[in-house]
């Protein structure tokens, strides 16, 4: 353990707000994709989150972090590799991107160009990430789809992103489901649902129509043949709908009959009849 890691571990035990030296900030960014989960998850991610959310970073430090991370393009490091260790750099850069966009909404520090870059990247990342592993033995959580969803949800919530961007984000969710070949491992559906939830906050009617169309398409694909993949996609879609049911009162009327259809098809019709 070097002196910077030792000092940062001591810092992590103190109450907020924390105060970081330039060298400590550089160390955190140098280790954002560290293969040691105890460093990456328990130290780097925790302190970066506390720096942004709990006032640990100064405005100048936030600007410097944004400049370095944007210029470094770590979100796409090794993106062409189906499986590889650089997935940790990508996914935890995505998580940092979510922090950048979310905190920038309340106290702006990103340049207009940086904001637009991250909006573009948020869509592109979720559509191009191929390494979908959740927990990787020996290294900890990779969580590409989960962290990519967190980033895209934060991008949709940016006030200037607009309706066209929200529609593109919904299509990115559909694209993930279209590429699903085995069941998700670690509740990624709930994180994908956050993209839909953010889109619904600004464009509720468009999201309602999206939900109805997508549900019909999932059932049509599942009925087309005996292959298991369409079923996995339909099951994942239903978990998205259930998340929206519990987290979005405005969407509950739309998703309820869609969820009922799934349970009726599974042989549980009586318990899900609408009350008279």
Q: Structural class of the secondary structure composition?
A: mainly alpha
Supply the number of helical segments: 12
Helix content: 55-70%
Q: Could you describe the largest sheet, including whether it forms a barrel?
A: 2 strands, antiparallel
Strand sequence of the main sheet, in spatial order? 1-2
- Taking the alpha carbons of the first and last residues, their distance comes to 65 Å
- Average of pLDDT: 95
Task: Report the principal-axis shape.
Answer: globular
Radius of gyration: 20 Å
Q: What string gives the helices and strands in order?
A: HHHHHHEEHHHHHH
Chain oligomer state: single chain
Summarize the structure.
The chain has about 280 residues and is mostly helical. Helices cover about 70% and strands about 0% of the residues. Helix 8 packs antiparallel against helix 9 and helix 10 runs parallel beside helix 12.
How would you sum up this structure, described in words?
- With 276 residues, the protein is mainly α.
- The protein has helices spanning 3-12, 22-30, 37-53, 59-72, 87-106, 112-128, 144-156, 162-178, 188-202, 204-223, 228-247, 249-265; strands spanning 135-136, 140-141.
- Helix 6 (112-128) packs antiparallel against helix 7.
- It starts with a helix and ends in an 11-residue tail after the last helix.
- The mean pLDDT is 95.
Give the key terms.
two-stranded antiparallel sheet; mainly alpha; 276 residues
List the helices and strands and how they pair.
Blueprint: H1 3-12, H2 22-30, H3 37-53, H4 59-72, H5 87-106, H6 112-128, E1 135-136, E2 140-141, H7 144-156, H8 162-178, H9 188-202, H10 204-223, H11 228-247, H12 249-265
Helix pairs in contact: 3-5, 5-7, 6-7, 7-8, 7-9, 8-9, 9-10, 9-11, 10-11, 10-12, 11-12
